[in-house]
Amino acid sequence: MEIIVKRVLPGQDIKERLSFFLNENQLTAAAIVSAVGSVKEYVIRVSDGFSVIRGVENREIVSLSGILTKDGIHVHMALSGLDGLVIGGHLMEGCLVHTTLEVVMMSLDDDLRREFDPDTGYKELVIKKRAF
């Protein structure tokens, strides 16, 4: 396993950059270990699977977690506003960094990929241990 530390710059899309980091480091899969930063715009899908919350306001990223694979990214994000209240859900394209996003990722040795699951309607994680 390898630890990768990256910074996402102001104005950059978080989901796009996470995919870029995976490819840049030639990883087949990684997990987000830690992340801190802020957004100036956000798009997060909530638990019904199709509704989204959008906003154009500065918010702190209080949590960012998930698994990245070449077949797709499944990441959840929680954001706090000026009142300290938190909103959260599934990270979508359109979440733009305000000042910074510092993210620590760990490469994963398992053979991980995402395949369409007809029961959920989403590309879900498939785990196969690599032979050693």
Task: Give me a quick take on this structure.
By secondary structure, this protein is mainly beta. The protein has one helix spanning 14-24, and strands at 3-8, 29-45, 52-69, 72-80, 86-91, 96-107, 111-117, 122-128.
Q: Which sheet architecture does the biggest sheet show?
A: 6 strands, antiparallel
What is the number of helices?
A: 1
The helix content is under 10%
Shape verdict = globular
Strand residue content? over 45%
Uncertain parts: none
Radius of gyration: 15 Å
Report the order of strands and helices. EHEEEEEEE
CATH topology: 60s Ribosomal Protein L30, Chain: A
Mean pLDDT: 93
Q: What do we call the CATH homologous superfamily?
A: Hypothetical protein, similar to alpha- acetolactate decarboxylase, domain 2
How many distinct beta strands? 8
Q: Judging by the overall fold, what is the CATH architecture?
A: 2-Layer Sandwich
Overall structural domain count: 1
CATH class: Alpha Beta
Q: Kindly, what is the distance between the CA atoms of the first and last residues, rounded to a whole number of angstroms?
A: 14 Å
* Structural class label: mainly beta
Features:
single chain, 132 residues, mainly beta, 60s Ribosomal Protein L30, Chain: A, 6-stranded antiparallel sheet, two-stranded antiparallel sheet, 1 helix
